[in-house]
Amino acid sequence: MKIGIIGAGHIGGTTARLFVDAGHEVAISNSRGPETLRDLVASLGPNAHAATPEEASRFGEIVLLAIPFKDYTTLPADDLRGKIVIDATNYYPNRDGHYPELDSGERASSELVAAHLPGARVVKAFNTIWFEHLKSKGNKTAPVDQRRAIFISGDDADSKAIVSHLIEEIGFGPYDLGSLHHSLEQQPDSAVYNKDVTVAEGRRIAPR
After folding, report:
1. CA 20, CA 16: separation in Å to the nearest integer?
2. N or C, which terminus of the chain has less Cβ within 10 Å?
3. Torsions phi, psi for 40 (to 5 deg)
4. How far apart are CA 112 and CA 137, in angstroms?
């Protein structure tokens, strides 16, 4: 599968390595230009290359967003139309500024991302896990229920199934919280945010 990644920080760089190790092709980008990613892509091997955000968006069948939430309006909406978009962003008001509809809980941050990306199939995932756990906690040999949980939400069942399979391929267990609005339950300060729990344990703290 071809996967584009927008954002090459802790989450972007870590997922790029996991996806390459699972046999996928990756185009990774950042806001500073492909030339700044030379060392990273060299370490990832021949199945990874540096790109602009627009190029990564066009390349990927799936595109993962690993950027500060406040930058979501810079995403190339036309290039992401029809794509599965994994939203790993988190809303931090002290960094991103205040959005009244998010502060009130009326909307989830991923709903704003989806509104900016008409035609994209947005799935919230990879936002609740510390990058060091993403590096080290995967276990491809364990039953899915006993794996470290990665919580997901979204409105398109087929897209969630594809993202869930990708999560299992890299050694984690997907836990579906429901619709994209239910991604409120996986935002910072929620019961599941940054919690080192298995899928089975997730059922106790976030029952469907």
Report:
1. 6
2. C
3. -60, -50
4. 30
pTM reported for the whole predicted model: 0.97
> Does the CA dihedral 34-35-40-45 come out positive or negative?
positive
Q: What is the pLDDT of residues 126-174, one digit of tens each?
A: 999 999 999 999 999 999 999 999 999 999 999 999 999 999 999 999 9
DSSP the chain: -EEEEE--SHHHHHHHHHHHHTT-EEEEE-TT-GGGGHHHHHHH-TTEEEE-HHHHHHH-SEEEE-S-GGGGGGS-HHHHTTSEEEE-----HHHH---HHHHTTSS-HHHHHHHHSTT-EEEE-SSSS-HHHHHH---TTS-GGGSBEEEEEES-HHHHHHHHHHHHHTT-EEEE--SGGGGGGGSTTSTTTT---BHHHHHHHS--
Q: How far apart (Å, rounded) are the C-alpha atoms in residues 113 and 137?
A: 28
Q: Is 156 exposed, middle or buried (0-12, 13-18, 19+ CB in 10 A)?
A: middle
